[in-house]
Specification:
The structure is a single chain. The protein is built from 9 helices and no strands. Helix 2 packs across helix 3.
Length: about 190
């Protein structure tokens, strides 16, 4: 028979207040603590988009990642995923869940579902970008997926891939809008 989980004591004197800056800062701080820099994510974006946009720069990739990281849904997913990974490292999950998360069980898809909440922000092209980097695991994704260092990144590798996929989708949408604008100007000049 399982023991009931005791609720954590809360400080009852403070009412909840939404502090977006605090959430954003925590997101960036925890990504760094887990070894993920914006530059490493930018390398993934470059990997995904350079063949379509040869003029693409790392600076533009970073700019688009920063825009993705501004979204509250993204921040929520990042913090939730990292927290679950840390709890798994500490052995604090239910035994069956602990084993699945520790081993990044193939049939455990909740990590991808959490990542989809990021990808969804920028449309269906994000799904194909995400599926591709999730399969190939280039750059930092290979390191995050390596289980030999003792850290668990079951959620984080998918979250980082999703951030890169979302930024790539954002770039693709912006580039298409630029093309359409140029075509409209050409038509006006005819």
């Amino acid at each position: 028979m399982t023991q009931p989980i005791e609720p954590m004591a809360r400080e009852a004197t403070k009412p909840y207040s939404l502090d977006s800056e605090k959430v954003q800062n925590a997101t960036r701080e925890w990504l760094l603590k887990r070894g993920v820099t914006v530059d490493k994510i930018a390398e993934l974006v470059m990997f995904l988009q350079q063949q379509y946009f040869p003029e693409l720069t790392m600076e533009y990739c970073i700019y688009n990642i920063e825009q993705v990281l501004e979204k509250r849904e993204v921040q929520n997913a990042v913090l939730t995923g990292i927290q679950l990974d840390i709890m798994a490292e500490e052995g604090k999950l239910f035994p069956a869940l602990q084993e699945m998360v520790e081993n990044d069980e193939g049939l455990y898809g909740v990590d991808e579902v959490l990542a989809f909440s990021i990808v969804n922000v920028y449309g269906s092209i994000g799904f194909t970008n995400f599926g591709y980097v999730d399969k190939v695991k280039p750059g930092i994704l290979e390191k995050l997926n390596d289980k030999r260092d003792g850290e668990i990144h079951t959620f984080l590798d998918d979250i980082v891939g999703a951030i890169a996929a979302a930024a790539s989708s954002r770039i693709a949408h912006r580039k298409q809008a630029e093309r359409e604008e140029e075509m409209g100007q050409l038509r006006q000049n005819e």
